[in-house]
Write a structure and sequence with these properties.
The protein contains eight helices and eight strands; from the N terminus they run ββαβββββααβααααα. Bound molecules: zinc ion.
C-alpha cells in the first residue's frame, strides 16, 4: 500500500517504544479543504498533528513517525488511560466537519482507511475495542469523526466493537436505576468523564457521544430504551475483546 510522506514537526521530542501503541484514534479534520488541513497540521503554531492523513481521494500521507507522540487527542481518557496521545496513533480524515458543512466520507477514504487500519492492527496487535473515535475519548469536547462515520462497516471487517441485532422490547427498569446501569455499562466499555452514581449537567454529552458511535440516527442525549439495550449488549461483549 502506498503511503506518501508529508512531514509535520508537531510532535513530542521524546520517542516512545512501539509496544506502547495500544489505540488507533480516528478524527475528521473539520477544515475546508485538504490544503488548509495540511497547512494546519504542519504549522508549528497550531500545535496539532496526526500520524496519518487521508484525503478525499483516499491518498494517505504519513505526517509523524509511529514512534513519536503526535498531538491529536488532547485531554482524553479511555479505561485506565489518560492522555491517549502517548498510547495511540492518530488518523485524520479530510471532512469539512460540522462547522463548515459535514460531509459523507467518500468510498475511497473509507477503503484506504480500512487498508491502513488492517496494517496497523497487525503490526501493533491492536484490539478491536481500542479502535476509537476522538469523541469516544473526549466526549465533553469533541464530536468527530461524527455520525456519518461507518463504524458498523468497520466492525464487519473486524476493526471495531459492535453489537448483534436484537429484538426490541420495552425496558422495565426505573429511570434512576436505568441511568446507573447505563453509565456502569459504558464505563465497562471504556468511556469516562462521568460518575455513574451522581448526575451531572455533562451527562447528555457523554450519552450523545455513545449514540454518535453506536446509534447514529438517534443522537438525543437521552437514555432511550434502545440506547440502554445497546449499552447492555456491548458491556457484555467488551469483556471478551
Ligand atoms: Zn479530532
Amino acid at each position: 500500500m502506498l503511503i506518501n510522506l508529508n512531514k509535520s514537526l508537531n510532535y513530542s521530542k521524546k520517542s516512545r517504544k512501539l509496544k506502547n501503541i495500544k489505540f488507533l484514534i480516528i478524527h475528521y479534520t473539520g477544515m475546508q479543504s485538504t490544503r488548509v488541513s495540511l497547512q494546519r497540521l504542519k504549522n508549528p503554531k497550531s500545535k496539532v498533528s496526526c500520524h496519518y492523513f487521508i484525503t478525499k481521494n483516499g491518498v494517505i500521507y504519513r505526517m509523524v513517525e509511529d514512534n513519536k507522540v503526535a498531538w491529536h487527542a488532547g485531554k482524553s481518557k479511555w479505561k485506565n488511560k489518560t492522555n491517549l496521545n502517548k498510547y495511540s496513533l492518530g488518523i485524520e480524515i479530510q471532512n469539512k466537519g460540522h462547522q463548515f458543512g459535514y460531509e459523507k466520507f467518500t468510498k475511497k477514504q473509507i477503503s484506504a482507511l480500512i487498508q491502513l487500519l488492517k496494517i496497523l492492527v497487525k503490526k501493533y496487535k491492536i484490539k478491536k475495542n481500542n479502535i476509537l473515535g476522538h469523541s469516544d475519548v473526549a466526549p465533553l469536547r469533541k464530536i468527530d469523526p461524527g455520525e456519518n462515520f461507518p463504524w458498523k462497516l468497520l466492525s464487519k471487517k473486524g476493526l471495531a466493537l459492535w453489537y448483534e441485532n436484537f429484538k426490541f422490547k420495552k425496558n422495565r427498569n426505573k429511570s434512576k436505576m436505568k441511568r446507573k446501569i447505563f453509565f456502569r455499562n459504558i464505563h465497562k466499555i471504556g468511556y469516562r468523564f462521568f460518575n455513574s452514581s451522581k448526575k451531572s449537567k455533562n451527562d447528555n454529552m457523554v450519552i450523545k457521544s455513545f449514540q454518535r458511535r453506536f446509534l447514529p440516527r438517534d443522537i438525543s442525549g437521552k437514555i432511550t430504551d434502545k440506547t440502554f439495550k445497546i449499552s447492555q449488549l456491548l458491556a457484555r461483549k467488551s469483556n471478551l475483546t
